[in-house]
Design goal:
The protein has helices at residues 7-11, 26-34, 68-73, 90-106, 118-126, 136-149, 151-161, 163-167, 174-187, 217-234, 236-245, 278-302, 321-336; strands at 13-19, 45-49, 76-77, 110-115, 206-214, 314-317. By secondary structure, the protein is α/β, with parallel strands linked by helices. Strands 3-2-4-1-5-6 form a six-stranded parallel sheet, with helices on both faces.
Length: 345
């Protein structure tokens, strides 16, 4: 049962939020802190994934999902929800994360939001920005234009109207391009002007502890290189081919992610299944490997964009692994032992 020792703990839901870029060790950290088998086990928790691509089924290797053993040790939420051809957006995430937090805390456990999708995390911390409600007629017109003119034409249009939003949207992300244009044409205001800043206040329903892991860039890039090689050794190519054989393609929302989009050429054709000899297949596969590594490093630099200037955030610098885990464990204990039963407390 919960031990709640103060008025604040009765009024709010405690939530630990951990943001970190790709390949920075988030999964290993949560295992050490919240698995009964972990070296610094604090108390029982459940993980809410803040990863925009982990929601997709059959995309396990390229998204580096937690393995089945870890999911048995620590329950995970918001993974394997949709097929790769289904759309998932930030409002879906915030609604689902809210529901999960309430249910997890009701079970006497700590909700832990972990991921590298800064856009999702910022909107969860502040609440969704009040953008105009979607207009079906305008949305269909924009979809027709995308189909006729192509993504790039509308992306260039967005760059002129709202360069700040365009900078954060990939040219292949037709859904977000259309949404940003829709917001502008409905309101006369850019999508980037609708900021999820809650008037500068974090959401009142939660008592947050927000941590940002900051590994040095050179170490992070080295880890990304290792991660990409491990993905290929684990069968990333076969995973992508299986998805293609099922009819998913470059226009499927899931396959626009890093690790998957690189397997298609600029015309949306798969480059690995259409090669004509072993040498060409090998060359294409190596090209994919290099592109995934390059795009992952580039993305890692951008991941911090959405979580800058969030009040109360605690930056966790890179130290020896055991020292870092010990430091984080102490912060969590200090913050949340008033809400939950801590061993020895």
């Amino acid at each position: 049962m919960n031990t709640k020792t103060n008025t604040q703990s009765k009024a709010k839901i405690p939530v630990l939020v951990i943001f970190a870029p790709t390949a920075s060790g988030k999964t290993a950290l949560t295992r050490e802190l919240f698995s009964p088998k972990g070296s610094h086990f604090i108390f029982k928790a459940e993980i809410i994934s803040a990863d925009s691509q982990a929601v997709y089924k059959q995309m396990d290797i390229g998204t580096a999902k937690p393995d089945s053993e870890l999911c048995k040790e620590i329950p995970h939420h918001l993974i394997n929800l949709l097929n790769p051809n289904q759309q998932y957006n930030v409002s879906d995430f915030v609604d689902a994360a809210d529901k999960a937090c309430e249910e997890i805390y009701a079970r006497g456990k700590l909700p832990v939001v972990v991921g590298g999708t800064g856009f999702y995390i910022r909107n969860f911390l502040y609440g969704l920005a009040p953008t105009p409600v979607s207009d079906e007629k305008l949305r269909n017109q924009l979809k027709e234009r995308i189909a006729k003119e192509g993504n790039e034409a509308l992306y260039e249009e967005l760059k002129k109207i709202d360069p700040q939003s365009a900078e954060k949207i990939h040219v292949n992300d037709a859904y977000r391009i259309c949404r940003a244009l829709e917001v502008y044409y409905l309101s006369g205001k850019t999508r980037s002007s609708f900021k999820a800043d809650g008037g500068g206040k974090l959401r009142d329903k939660y008592d947050f502890l927000f941590m940002v892991l900051e590994p040095p860039r050179e170490i992070l890039y080295e880890r990304i290189g290792i991660r990409v090689n491990e993905m290929f050794e684990a069968g990333l190519k076969q995973e992508v081919l299986s998805l293609i054989e099922q009819g998913y393609g470059a226009d499927s929302p899931g396959l626009k992610a890093i690790g998957y989009s690189e397997w298609f050429n600029e015309n949306g054709e798969p480059i690995i299944s259409n090669c004509y000899n072993i040498e060409e297949c090998t060359e294409n596969e190596e090209k994919c490997r290099q592109l995934i590594r390059h795009h992952s490093c580039k993305y890692a630099k951008k991941q911090y964009t959405y979580i800058r200037d969030i009040p109360g955030s605690i930056r966790i610098p890179y130290t020896a692994e055991n020292e870092q885990i010990q430091h984080i464990a102490e912060l969590i204990r200090s913050k949340f032992c008033a809400y939950l039963q801590c061993p020895g407390i």
